[in-house]
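Standup notes
- DV: blocked on the single-chain target, sequence here:
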Amino acid sequence: MAQKKLADKNVRKLMKTGRSGASFGLTLPKELVMSLGWREKQRIIVKRISGGLIIRDYKNRG
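- DV (later): unblocked, structure below
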């Protein structure tokens, strides 16, 4: 598989998931996920802000 240009490395596409298409999925660069110390199936928070989204680690407040 060809290497992506450095400028395009963090450009991603939204994909429909499931049969009904009611949800969308997004892949994240492995380097970013590993640098944050995140793992598979980890809980995260997605928050809408003006002009975009914030994705953060879920902190259990219990």
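- Follow-up: Helices lie at 30-36.
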